[in-house]
């Protein structure tokens, strides 16, 4: 397999990190300081502006452990990776470490996604796939202490290992993904599908079959380990499921979120309300990625279509029916659906005007949403 262009990927990574730093500098100063003020802003104020919403929770869990049963909704691996060096370096280090891990995981993901996209559509598609991912309007969550980039790294790494038939590596990465997000357990389905595709090769001998098939057991083991921990804390193996209602999530029919969205947009919410804008953002992200999944089903590897279908199903059946925005956070969850970015890249190869439009629209929206995030607006 052809090597990824390290220099191009590093430049893309650094350029987009610099963009977010510039946004933080100008937006935080201009929106928090008095007019014509000559007082400087402390460096830690810039850093702490990225400690919002879930980032605070992951950092708090890393520093103090699971203090509330409701915290169990947040799977442990990301906070654990912060905690290991954080306990050595001290309290000041937890947020910087979380951001460092998140950005390092993104960098690793870019290399993996380049290989996966190039395998499907060639170098041009691969370049555009990682470009769109980095400038996507909600790519800000790859910059702060959220676990999106870690899950993307582990899930895409699992699928790359499956593509290369590195079964044990896929099992280990799947285990880690299942310790990062509950959706990680669904990697067992792509694993089974790849086993089926490789059945003639792996069933040559019983030993080789067992060597290829047994690692799939590692994937649910990740969730099993966390379930045992939940049981030790609360007496409930599925405490991470039980507390979802506290975070306004509940099991629902896939269409319920759309029905509520239509009602909110066209009946309940007045034009120009804060809720209306948020509902539009999350609904647009949800519908767009459903369309990309449908369009891409004949363009990309079936394993990737299976994976994005599972991810979409999981967010549709766990909508926040109890809130005004049933698709809340979907703008963030779609970041993990890398097959859609490959499909989008393939579509723009023959549509240069669409590509040019995305190069203007995506960064503008990224800057806007990043500004809202650092100012503590409702952008979860």
Automatic annotation (TrEMBL):
UniProt membrane topology term: Multi-pass membrane protein
Keyword annotations from UniProtKB, A to Z: Endoplasmic reticulum, Glycosyltransferase, GPI-anchor biosynthesis, Membrane, Transferase, Transmembrane, Transmembrane helix
Membrane-spanning parts: 12-31, 94-117, 129-147, 167-196, 208-229, 277-296, 303-321, 333-350, 357-376
Biological processes annotated in GO: GPI anchor biosynthetic process
Biochemical pathway: Glycolipid biosynthesis; glycosylphosphatidylinositol-anchor biosynthesis
A molecular function GO annotation: alpha-1,6-mannosyltransferase activity
Pfam families xrefs: Mannosyl_trans2
InterPro entries cross-referenced by the UniProt entry: PIG-V/Gpi18
Protein name, UniProt field: Glycosyltransferase RgtA/B/C/D-like domain-containing protein
Organism in which the protein naturally occurs: Dictyobacter alpinus
